[in-house]
Design goal:
Low-confidence stretches: 1-13, 22-32
Structural class: alpha/beta
Radius of gyration: 19 Å
Oligomer: single chain
Number of helices: 9
Helix content: 40-55%
Shape: globular
Strand content: 15-25%
Number of strands: 9
Order of helices and strands: HHEHEHEHEHEHEEHEHE
Distance between the termini: 16 Å
């Protein structure tokens, strides 16, 4: 793209962002919404439900919503493979929720985790085994990983396996120091980044507000990606949100449709 076009595109991006967030901060909801609608048609939202593998009952709450969600499965749990089968048979997209080392050494990321001190061959072997044991995986996102994803060399080892298996990568952005998305793009891997964690506060009203924020981003930029977890509150808020947007031009889509 010519430099002039890049500059103009950047200015338009900043202009829309300023109008949207100024309207939001000052309470001019109509301003931010009208600006967004003037800029984008048919906005798309992807929502990934992480931490699948513990409970079929919790999974069913989300399957019953009927929305095009993406489910990310933790490896090496007793129900990981069977729930992957159930999700696949129900027609939904599946990812591997790859555990990675957090900053806090007292926190256990779970079985099949990757650590910064692991030698390259162990990183490669571990993630290959996790992929092999989780059927129908089409992509990977990180579980925890605030320490691991900040390390470029280690992420390159992970992403080499991702690329070699024809998968995509979604950076959960558990730290603003993550190198995941940037490294994936330098390796020509299809990738995306999380915009909002919708349920860091486990309250239905707050989750509903976060979903509205996600919708605002999608209306402004054309697409947005949120991450949630298998909580009862998340399922209830998501069901209400989905019922509301079904009569609009906003679509809930698998995250694979929003990759760059």
């Amino acid at each position: 793209m010519p430099e002039k076009d890049l500059i103009m595109g950047r200015r338009a991006f900043l202009y829309k962002s300023a109008l949207f967030f100024a309207g939001s901060l000052l309470g001019f909801k109509g301003l931010s919404t009208s600006v967004a609608r003037a800029c984008i048609t048919n906005p798309k939202i992807a929502i990934i439900i992480d931490d699948i593998g513990f409970s079929e009952e919790r999974l069913k709450e989300f399957l019953d919503i009927g929305a095009s969600l993406t489910f990310s499965i933790l490896p090496r749990l007793p129900m990981s493979a069977s729930l992957a089968e159930k999700i696949h048979n129900s027609g939904y997209e599946i990812m591997l929720h790859q555990p990675m080392e957090p900053l806090d050494p007292s926190v256990d990321p779970g079985p099949g985790a990757l650590y910064v001190e692991d030698p390259p061959e162990k990183i490669t072997c571990t993630i290959k085994e996790n992929i092999a044991e989780t059927p129908y995986v089409t992509g990977i996102n990180n579980h925890m990983g605030s320490r691991f994803t900040a390390c470029g060399n280690e992420m390159k080892e992970v992403l080499t396996v991702v690329r070699d298996n024809g998968l995509f990568f979604v950076d959960s952005l558990t730290t603003n120091r993550s190198t995941g998305y940037r490294t994936a793009k330098t390796m020509n891997i299809s990738a995306a980044r999380r915009n909002i964690f919708i349920d860091n506060v486990q309250d239905e009203a707050h989750i509903g507000m976060q979903l509205e924020n996600l919708k605002g981003l999608a209306q402004l930029f054309g697409q947005a990606t949120g991450i949630g977890h298998p909580f009862h509150e998340t399922a209830r808020a998501l069901r209400s949100f989905y019922n509301n947007i079904r009569v609009t031009d906003i679509s809930l889509v698998p995250v694979s449709t929003l990759l760059t």
